[in-house]
Design brief:
By secondary structure, the protein is mainly α. It contains 8 helices and no strands. Helix 3 packs across helix 8 and helix 6 runs antiparallel to helix 7.
Length: 171
């Protein structure tokens, strides 16, 4: 989430990178540190690959380019396949790439992320509750909530994708 306010020049032929608007992490380090702690607490006990899939899907829905870059790279570093990452945008048509538990998590991610689309339908919640024990389900809901918060910082701050290397920082 930390950004420098330098303008990165695009390689020949590519559009220039949009400059960032604001860096909440630099201006409010206590909020940033609290978000990091919240993120760590939210995903505790969850499968790290599942968490990355959830973070990527929420970030697709929220069009957070910075988080898409970060979590796609983190998923690859965690052993996820390019194919499964690419198919996330059409996971309903690519169900055979994912386990039933992952599918339930993706459906819940979409429902929680796009609350204006009919809230979280009972059938989506019930399906997730079938695949996750109660504490794990609470962790999943927390992880979905946290990535949505990160997305809102990233999109509003117009944080630029492409500069993240796995291990730079975790959220």
């Amino acid at each position: 989430m930390t950004t420098t306010h330098e303008h990165h020049h695009a390689p020949a032929g590519l559009s220039p990178e949009e400059p960032p608007r604001i860096s909440v992490s630099e201006l409010l380090p206590d909020v940033y540190k609290a978000m990091i702690r919240l993120d760590i607490a939210a995903r505790k006990g969850l499968d790290p690959v599942l968490v990355e899939l959830v973070k990527i899907r929420a970030s697709q829905l929220n069009q957070c380019a910075f988080c898409l870059d970060m979590h796609s790279k983190d998923a690859l570093a965690a052993g996820e396949s390019v194919e499964r990452i690419v198919q996330l945008g059409a996971w309903r048509e690519s169900r055979h790439f994912y386990t039933p538990k992952e599918l339930a998590a993706l459906a819940l991610t979409e429902a929680v992320t796009v609350l204006t689309d009919g809230f979280v339908p009972d059938e989506v919640y019930a399906e997730a509750a079938e695949h996750f024990e109660e504490t794990e389900l609470a962790q999943l809901i927390a992880a979905i909530t946290v990535i949505n918060a990160w997305n809102r910082f990233g999109v509003t701050g117009r944080l630029a994708p492409g500069h993240y290397t796995p291990g730079d920082f975790k959220h």
